[in-house]
Amino acid sequence: MKCGYVTILGKPNVGKSTLINTILKQKVSIVSPKPATTRIKIIGIYNDDRGQIIFIDTPGFEEGKNEMGRFMLKSIYSSLEETDLILFLIESTGWTKEDEKILSVLKKMEKNNVLLGINKIDILKFKEELLPLIDESRKKFNFLEIVPFSALKNKNLDSLLKAIFDHLPESERFYSTDMVTNLPLEYQISEIIREKILHKTFKEVPHSVAVEIEEMREGEKNKEIFYIKANIIVDRENLKSIIIGKDGKMIKNIGKLAREEIEFILKRKVYLELTVKVIEDWRNKIDVFRKFGYGNI
Ligand SMILES: Nc1nc2c(ncn2[C@@H]2O[C@H](COP(=O)(O)OP(=O)(O)OP(=O)(O)O)[C@@H](O)[C@H]2O)c(=O)[nH]1
Ligand SMILES: [Mg+2]
């Protein structure tokens, strides 16, 4: 039996979280078309007859622009030290400067346990374009293997899983087979709310938002209903009105989408109360973003 840790590494938006969700057939990590969606290390556990893979989804690798960003980067480095395998992702459209930068870090760390995943092959018009890219990649670094796939369209993920199992150590499973993620329920719920906000906002707004669960309990009168009170935190006063929207339309819409998904996970009716709060420059306040669950290494 094989078992071990696989850290997924790559620039923002390359499809790390999508890959984990597709393999686990469950949303453990939120996804959005905006870069820098993931903020913490998220663990997703995959099991089959061959053994167990513990995937670690990391935030997109980029220079920390604020305290939170620097903490995110630190947490990526610590995963790279501890993991059995590194799955480095690039896009099928070719190597970018950002990819090269990540590769230089792997070289500097003298890593010899790196698989290269080429994601988003569905956007290629001609599949022949892959061969030169694979050749070019092989010349750049001593990857254990190079596997092209599409995380979104679930293409060639069998080959990826095979490559991972081939290179994992022999071991019994670390986690019981019914465990899919390490995320506490409270954090899963706050991430679902944040995901809906990410899909509805633009430019700097998505990055400025955090979600904090203030209260989570059974309804007082009606025990069937689960009551959740959450605060949407923004880092500037003028973003408050964007989140609330004209006549409160935006926040209502975010609340409805989030509630439906939370009800699906909890398998019960939910009453979700959302409030918008301003905490000036929260991404530079360590004790604040730690409280939201970010920056825990
Ligand atoms: N066409 C296509 N799009 C994909 C594929 N995989 C992911 N995407 C899209 O790419 C965008 C980013 O996906 P994420 O999974 O959030 O990317 P990430 O690497 O986790 O991003 P960060 O958390 O910001 O670092 C989303 O819009 C996905 O739907 C793929 O195989 N094909
Ligand atoms: Mg992500």
Question: Mind explaining what this structure looks like?
Answer:
Helix 3 (97-108) links the parallel strand 4 and strand 5 (114-119). This protein is α/β, with parallel strands linked by helices. It is 36% helix and 22% strand. It contains nine helices and nine strands. Helix 6 (185-200) packs antiparallel against helix 8. It has a six-stranded mixed sheet with strand order 2-3-1-4-5-6, sandwiched between helices. The chain folds into two domains: 2-167, Rossmann fold (3-Layer(aba) Sandwich), CATH 3.40.50; 185-291, 2-Layer Sandwich (GMP Synthetase, Chain A, domain 3). Guanosine-5'-triphosphate binds at residues 10, 12-18, 31-33, 35-38, 59-60, 119-120, 122-123, 150-153.
What labels describe this entry?
297 residues; alpha/beta; GMP Synthetase, Chain A, domain 3; binds guanosine-5'-triphosphate; binds magnesium ion; 2 domains; six-stranded mixed sheet; three-stranded mixed sheet; Rossmann fold; globular
Shape: globular
CATH architecture name of the largest domain: 3-Layer(aba) Sandwich
Going by CATH, the homologous superfamily of the largest domain would be: P-loop containing nucleotide triphosphate hydrolases
**Which stretches of 5+ consecutive residues score pLDDT under 50?**
none
Computed CA radius of gyration, to the nearest angstrom: 20 Å
